[in-house]
Amino acid sequence: MTVDNKMHSPKQQPNVPYAIHSVGKVFTGVLMLKLIEKGIISKESIDQPIKDHISETVWKQLPEKVKIHLEENGITLRQVMTHRGGLGDYLPDYTNAIAEENIPKINQPEDFIPYIDNFGDKEAINKDVYSNVGILLVGLAIKHACKDQDYNKILEEHLLDDVGITCLPHKPDNGVYNLGDKIAPHIVGGPSGGYWMTVEDLAKFGKWLYEEYKKPEFEKIMREYGKEFYYPEYGKIAHDGRIPSANAHFAIYLETGIIVAVLSDQPNKAVDLGFAIKRHLFAHPTSQKQLLASTTLSVATKLSNKPKEELKNRQKNVSIDDFGLRSSSHNIKSKITNRLNKKNKSKDDFDIEYKYSEKFTNKK
After folding, report:
1. pLDDT by residue (tens digit) across 102-133?
2. If you average pLDDT over residues 48-72, what whole number do you get?
3. How far apart are CA 325 and CA 266, in angstroms?
4. How far apart are CA 248 and CA 265, in angstroms?
5. pTM above 0.90?
6. How far is CA 177 from each of CA 44, 183, 200, 263, 265, rounded to the nearest angstrom?
7. Is 246 helix (H, G, I), strand (E, B) or coil?
8. Is 305 helix (H, G, I), strand (E, B) or coil?
């Protein structure tokens, strides 16, 4: 039995794009897996220096200290794929440029290079230190492996067309964002995230990826090279994404086939709601878990146009009214309310993707 629950804010129509932030890293990671599966990128090359995987033109554009760090320490493609290359970020300088109304013109991954932090941290090599620069280099390696074609066309040809979804680098006219944030509408998608898509398409991607995972050869490749988003010890594929004004949550629970996709133009709400939904679903006895197999929960939440001060105040307390959700199946609304109203959260409330996201958000 398949249950498809789709919940939207009463003020928000379905099929409206939101920014997915760092959930976009899953698309980059899966694109890499598909290229490995097709033999476009060899398994043996994954442990070769990242310098060997990007074009000479791109290499020359990298900040000097980054090039020295990569070369002297022999940082490999595998290391940058899993945030273990001792690299930094580009978002602070990129978003500062937007804030100063010097809007960057971003069309390809290499257009982010001018905003890269000019450093490499030797002490962070082979440690889990989240790096948008690392995943950007993964995208540049993908582009070079595909003969330096347009990156967005590579993504379409080797992934999006197979799934049958739309994933846009620039905000479309009907894209939803937090109106209290002047940076948000200028977010441009790239290998490290920031794409714009509907929650329906994100959920559809989850269904497709779950079916791919069930193929033994692809699961084997994912287990070896998909550690940025694949957690076999927890039986899930998961990633969060966020900026100060909005966030996104994506999870596939591999034992049951449950997919949860939540996009929001509100701070923290997608992640909080994602965990509330998860705890409700897994509170069912085993027999009911089986009934919920192949369930997809795709949720879009939208905040009405509120003054900036009210946006800040609403971050402090989460309630079901903040989500403005409608649902008639499984009594999800009341269950979520109960979860959100818990005053004393247990350690289980903060599982791997929450700690993963918070760790790196705080680091920044």
Report:
1. 999 999 999 999 999 999 999 999 999 999 99
2. 98
3. 14
4. 9
5. no
6. 42, 10, 17, 10, 5
7. strand
8. coil
